[in-house]
Specification:
Length: 201
């Protein structure tokens, strides 16, 4: 059965078909949840709430997008709701998290850490640990945009659609996330090795 057939079967009450749809996306949704929450317990709660919500709303899925995209949007909403309960001060002005000297009009991409191919960086275990730690320290609005864009590989337009933000706002958040991460990772690398990390100027 293809995805459309599985969705139609799930809508008719076939729980086995629903499980097959979920199984195809479970790992990716869990990866998103663990990145956004920072710990396994919260990630498991987000996953559980996401799948329960998907079961409840499967009749509302119009198949105008891929099932995975629909499930992703539910997971994002559940992550936001879950983390909002735990932290109500997440939406501080973004400028508070920028490295000093940078503004929303920052355009000097030559100084940015090269995230065009994050997989190359994440192949190194030590760099991956440093990077994951830096990502976990980002405020949620930064973390969400960065994870969707560079870890999950979505386009700016796709990130904007999933988060309900404009393209311009999404680009700004992604850029600021990169700036904040560059600053954090560079400092850790210099403190540990006494020199800048390659790729950070």
């Amino acid at each position: 059965m293809n995805e459309r057939e599985l969705v139609l079967a799930a809508k008719s009450g076939d729980f086995g078909a629903f499980n097959k749809l979920i199984a195809a996306h479970k790992d990716k949704i869990y990866g998103l949840a663990i990145k956004l929450s920072g710990n396994e317990q919260d990630a498991e709660d987000i996953i559980q709430d996401t799948f329960l919500k998907a079961i409840d709303r499967i009749d509302q899925f119009r198949m105008e997008s891929a099932f995975g995209t629909w499930l992703y949007s539910i997971a994002l909403n559940e992550a936001r709701a879950h983390l909002a309960k735990r932290k109500k001060t997440d939406l501080k002005p973004l400028e508070e998290y920028l490295p000093k000297g940078h503004t929303s009009e920052e355009s000097d991409h030559s100084e940015l850490f090269d995230w065009k191919d994050p997989h190359t960086i994440l192949e190194n275990e030590e760099l991956r640990q440093i990077t994951n730690g830096a990502i976990s320290r980002l405020p949620y609005v930064y973390k969400e945009a960065f994870v969707l864009r560079y870890i999950d590989g979505l386009s700016v337009k796709e990130v904007a659609e999933l988060t309900g933000e404009s393209d311009a706002s999404t680009k700004s958040r992604i850029l600021r996330a990169r700036l904040a991460l560059r600053d954090d990772i560079s400092k850790i690398f210099e403190d540990k090795y006494g020199r800048k990390m390659p790729g950070i100027h």
